[in-house]
Every structure is written in structure tokens, then in C-alpha cells.
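User: Reviewer 2 asked us to show a designed sequence for the structure in our supplementary figure. I'm pasting the C-alpha cells here. Could you produce the per-position amino acids so we can include them in the response letter?
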């Protein structure tokens, strides 16, 4: 019984840590999403091809997302920054490429089947891609991006 009492606070601490991280990750994602949505809809509506609109939107959201997440996870020192940017960049670029494929496919489909709702269909593909990637990115950011050894010991 004593052992259970000492394990419970550790589990609560770990649970509490993940809820804190998830809520802050969601907030950072909301900021990035808001910025990228405005950029995507504006650029696509003004005539940018879907892949170009996706890249522009990605650029608009990636920078604040990285900075906010780095603050949340307590990124490493200046020497660790390059690796964090590189790992975050790879995850972010893969997500953007998936979104570019999804929006391009949706654009071709919408042009033939839903011409009046083309922007909405393509935007739905863009949002859907990022919604699916939210969980995957959280795990990758937590386990691969911000990996300062001194922080890892305190987990």
C-alpha cells in the first residue's frame, strides 16, 4: 500500500506534465493555424496554385509555432538551437508536403466535381491534413525535437 501511495503522485505529475504540454502545444498550433489559414485562403483566393498557397501558409505558421513550442518545452541552450530547428524543420516540411499533396489532389477533384465549392474543398483538405498530423507532431516534438539531456533527466 505504501508503494502505491508513492507511485500515484509520480503518475499524476507525469499526467499533469503531458496535459500541460498538450494544452500549450494546442495553443501554439492554434496561433500557427490562424496565421496559416489567413495566408492560405488569401493566397489561394488571389490565384496562387494550391501547392504554393500551402507553402506560403506553412511559412506563415511554422515560425511562431516553433518559437512557442520551444518556450513550452524549454528548448536547450544556444548550441542546441541548430539541432532543434533542423529536427523541427524536417517534421514541419514533411507535414507541409503531405498538405501540398492533399490540397493538390483536392483541387483536381473539386475542379471536376465541385467547382462552386472549390476553395472550401481545398481548404478542407489543408485543415484535415494538419488535424491528423497534430497528434503525430506532438509525439515527435516531445520525443525528438527538444531533447536537452538536462531536461530529460527531470522527466
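Assistant: Here is a per-position design you can include in the supplement:
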Amino acid at each position: 500500500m505504501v508503494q502505491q501511495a508513492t507511485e500515484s503522485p509520480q503518475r499524476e505529475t507525469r499526467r499533469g506534465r503531458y496535459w500541460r504540454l498538450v494544452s500549450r502545444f494546442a495553443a501554439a498550433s492554434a496561433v500557427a493555424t490562424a496565421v496559416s489559414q489567413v495566408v492560405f485562403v488569401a493566397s489561394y483566393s488571389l490565384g496562387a496554385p494550391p501547392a504554393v498557397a500551402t507553402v506560403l501558409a506553412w511559412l506563415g505558421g511554422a515560425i511562431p509555432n516553433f518559437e512557442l513550442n520551444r518556450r513550452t518545452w524549454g528548448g536547450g541552450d544556444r548550441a542546441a538551437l541548430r539541432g532543434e530547428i533542423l529536427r523541427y524543420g524536417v517534421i514541419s516540411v514533411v507535414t507541409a508536403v503531405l498538405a501540398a499533396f492533399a490540397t493538390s489532389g483536392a483541387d483536381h477533384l473539386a475542379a471536376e466535381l465541385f467547382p462552386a465549392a472549390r476553395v472550401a474543398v481545398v481548404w478542407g483538405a489543408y485543415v484535415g491534413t494538419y488535424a491528423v498530423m497534430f497528434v503525430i507532431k506532438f509525439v515527435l516534438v516531445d520525443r525528438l525535437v527538444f531533447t536537452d539531456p538536462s531536461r530529460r533527466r527531470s522527466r
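For the response letter, you might also mention the following. The two ends are 24 Å apart (CA to CA). Confidence is low (pLDDT under 50) at residues 1-7.
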